[in-house]
Amino acid sequence: MTDMKRRSLLAGLAALPAAGCTELAETGPARGLFDAVEGWHRATHRTLAARQALAREYTPEDRSPDIRGNGSLTVDSEYYRAQLANGFADWRLEVRGLVDNLLSLGLDEIKALPQRTQITRHDCVEGWSAIAEWTGPQLSHLLDAARLREEARFIVFRCADTLNGNDYYESIDLVDAYHPQTIIAHGLNGEPLPEKNGAPLRLRVERQLGYKHAKYLTAIEAVASFDDIHAGKGGYWEDVGDYQWYAGI
Ligand SMILES: Nc1nc2c(c(=O)[nH]1)N[C@H]1C(S)=C(S)[C@@H](COP(=O)(O)O)O[C@H]1N2
Ligand SMILES: [Mo]
């Protein structure tokens, strides 16, 4: 994605009506159109601003005593078991799909990027919440390094586990992908992620419900649509369980 496109995405569209248009719209029927367009810009800007707002962050004392695991708590594959036993020394995270610069990153490289630490609340639709401290690079750094293409509209997260025989995966749009609290976490409460919570890497996307926070990440994929991915609804639970794709909180 170019800087231009990113800036307009992130700054909103409110600044668009240009001086020339204002003059044309001063009087007559163009006025109504102008008002409508301006109203649309304002509404778009408001929606975007709401989506960019930060999730609440907490203090260390607020942290829950334990972060229970949910969904997959372990990964069966031989590859994963060997990596776990080896401290994930050879684990790779790919950043691929609609990018100009395909990346394959080891944990050390991910830890060498600028890091963000945040204490946030996880909300699972099954009716439990937990507050924890998460650490990792912002997803925006990875996407910028991979140079997202213009056609990219969604970011898909591929995982190492299967649930009921299906690959777990998830996806978010670019507003959430570039949200400052969207990180690829390798740390939980100052320690490496335990297996039950998604070792060695999991998504934290703090303005979304729990099932969007993909664990056991193997790849981050930029796509234009979900049509060719599993059942086409953009995520494991969206495909099999009728959960909404947009799970904003
Ligand atoms: N790969 C993978 N990611 C996943 C799941 C899963 O089963 N597999 N479960 C999801 C659900 S429903 C929730 S609530 C959170 C739970 O995260 P936790 O296990 O760290 O509590 O992970 C989400 N991400
Ligand atoms: Mo969940």
What is the topology?
Elements: H1 3-11, H2 19-25, H3 29-52, H4 78-85, E1 92-97, E2 103-106, H5 107-112, E3 116-124, E4 128-136, H6 139-146, E5 154-163, E6 166-173, H7 174-177, E7 182-185, E8 187-188, E9 191-192, E10 202-205, E11 217-223, H8 236-240
Parallel strand pairs: 1-11
Antiparallel strand pairs: 1-2, 3-4, 4-8, 5-6, 5-11, 7-10, 8-9
Bound molecules: ligand MTE and molybdenum atom.
SSE string, helices as H and strands as E: HHHHEEHEEHEEHEEEEEH
Low-confidence stretches: 7-25
Intertermini distance: 26 Å
- Percent of residues in beta strands: 25-35%
- The total count of helices amounts to 8
Please give the largest β-sheet.
Answer: 5 strands, mixed
Q: Can you characterise this structure?
A:
The protein has 249 residues and is α+β, with helices and mostly antiparallel strands. It folds into two domains: 3-52; 60-239, Sulfite Oxidase, Chain A, domain 2 (Alpha-Beta Complex). Helices cover 29% and strands 26% of the residues. It has helices at 3-11, 19-25, 29-52, 78-85, 107-112, 139-146, 174-177, 236-240, and strands spanning 92-97, 103-106, 116-124, 128-136, 154-163, 166-173, 182-185, 187-188, 191-192, 202-205, 217-223. The strands form three sheets. The chain has a five-stranded mixed β-sheet with strand order 2-1-11-5-6. Strand 3 and strand 4 form a beta hairpin. It starts with a helix and ends in a 9-residue tail after the last helix. Mean pLDDT is 90; it is low at 7-25. The structure holds the ligand Nc1nc2c(c(=O)[nH]1)N[C@H]1C(S)=C(S)[C@@H](COP(=O)(O)O)O[C@H]1N2 and molybdenum atom.
